[in-house]
Amino acid sequence: MSGYDTIPQGANIQVDKFTLSIPDQELQDFKDLLRLSKLAPKTYENLHANAKDGEFGVSHEWMSKAKDFWLNEYDWRAIEKQNNSFPNFVAHVKDDNGEVFKIHFVALFSKKQDAVPLLYMHGWPGSHLEHLDIFDLYRNKYSPEELPYHTIAVSLPGWTLSSGPPLDRDFDTEDIARIMNKLMIGLGFGSGYICQGGDIGSFTAKVIAGTYDECKDNFAISGEPPKDVDESKITEVEKKGMERMQAFYMTGNGYAREHGTRPATIGFVLAASPLAQLAWIGEKFQEWTDETPPLTKILDSITLYWFTESFPRCIYCYREFSIPGSRGLPHGNPKYNNDKPVAYSWFPKELAPVPREWVEKQGHKLVFFRQHESGGHFAAMEKPKEMLEDMEEFIKTIGWPVK
Asked: Does the keyword section mention Hydrolase (predicted)?
């Protein structure tokens, strides 16, 4: 960690160093509650479930084994140690109305004067933890003196170690985008930065790039069908991806409807039991990935959600784009389109791996595109090496600073 924790001289906001450490009593309370939480009785559905294929959800066998491992073998202190091997910070970001958001982030700051600021943003049910493997690659490849980038992996407002959204007013992706832009400006990157995001992080990246001049580029794409698509330009591999997208819209987005229409109810349900969160979130780490991650990695994310009471605080965005009559995804909103350079890393097991033709027809200035043969929704976690290589090639393509 030594050498990567020097905050840039241009920073003009309060930034405190942070160490992740859950008190022993909270850890014991969690173990007690987990032990007392009952598994559902065996049913036809959970005995024939296959979360990987989207069939009925999580299985009784998986839940039983996962609970046993979580209770008797899982080591939370190990993920704390891994997390704390990177510089952690909490920035005090003042909003336009004077409200202060405490925003957690992990960073590798460079000592190079011309280092490129990179903002990495997760989604649901992710966290900054999914970027730690990429950051490990960065620090193994570059010393603080050689690192070409300032890399920042943020915890979005409402997620894990950051402040939640306000209790007295609505809050949406435009609000997240504003706070993220203020964070980057406050860290001294007002002359320009690049943002990368997955899931809700991708939506936020679209809004940031389409709203703020400081964000020069957007390494994130999703979308809705544009007009005048040339079907002959859509490859067979992309057509298979579109089949996956249609399946998700037909049977895979029930969770999003629940988040969007009954957020208070599902918030109480999942806040009451770690086993409930294991089922609700563990299903997604199985179904939305190409290869199911190791159980330990899945439990790292769910345990962090549990200790930070993240779930009820982090689903507010779903009211914005997951229900009929809502505003819809930012990627389909022309108000955010501009001529800034865009990169798109395509992964076959993404939830909605849209074809390249769609992206170009939506008016994006697509300057980098790479179609990967494997990988899913949690690309930063599943394919850290490929994501790092794509980002570096994108930066070489656009040059820096971008005019």
From this structure: yes
Residue 403 pLDDT > 80, yes or no?
no
122, 133, 138, 199: the catalytic one is: 199
Q: What is the CATH number of the domain that holds 2?
A: 3.40.50.1820
* Token pair in block for residue 129: 């933890």
Q: Distance (Å, rounded) from C-alpha 293 to C-alpha 339?
A: 37
Which of 122, 259, 372, 377 is flagged as catalytic? 377
Is residue 223 within 8 A of residue 336, CB to CB? The reply is no
Catalytic, 128? Answer no
Instruction: Note whether 223 and 359 are within 8 A (CB).
Output: yes
Catalytic, out of 149, 212, 316, 318: 318
Tokens of 353: 């791996």
Contact 242, 223 (CB under 8 A): no
Domain range spanning residue 143?
1-403
Count: domains in the chain: 1
Contacts of 28 (CB under 8 A, 6+ apart): none
229, 358 contact by CB (below 8 A): yes
**What three-state secondary structure class fits 94?**
strand
263: number of Cβ within 10 Å? 17
Clarify whether 377 is annotated catalytic. yes
CA distance 137 to 125: 23
**Could you confirm whether 290 is annotated as catalytic?**
no
Parallel, antiparallel or unpaired: strands 116-121 and 88-94: unpaired
**Mean pLDDT over residues 350-368, rounded?**
86
- Residue range 336-352: average pLDDT? 91
pTM confidence score: 0.96
382 SS3 class: helix
Q: Concatenated DSSP letters for 28-88?
A: HHHHHHHHHPPPPPP-HHHHS-BGGGTBSSS-HHHHHHHHHHHHHT--HHHHHHHHHTS-E
Q: How far apart are CA 133 and CA 213, in angstroms?
A: 30
Buried residues in 224-250 as b, exposed as e (16+ CB within 10 A):
eebeeeeeeebeeebeebbebbeebee
How far does Cα 366 stand from its chain's mean position?
22
